[in-house]
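User: Phosphopantetheine-binding protein, Nonomuraea ferruginea:
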Amino acid sequence: MPFADSGALSGFDDLAGLGLDSMGVVRLIVDIEDAYGVQVPDEILDERTFATVGSLWEALSPLVTRGP
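Assistant: Predicted structure for Phosphopantetheine-binding protein:
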């Protein structure tokens, strides 16, 4: 994310404000799928999921902890 500094992110940080655009979302999804060996389901791919760091973590954490 282009506007994220090296500091810690909070759950309230706005992803668009940090520079995450539509192409960044696609890259992020691919990176998560590759890194964790999961498939991100289409039904969670909406603007609410990618609104904040916290909303993204809330949507993806069950996939990451559960695995494929």
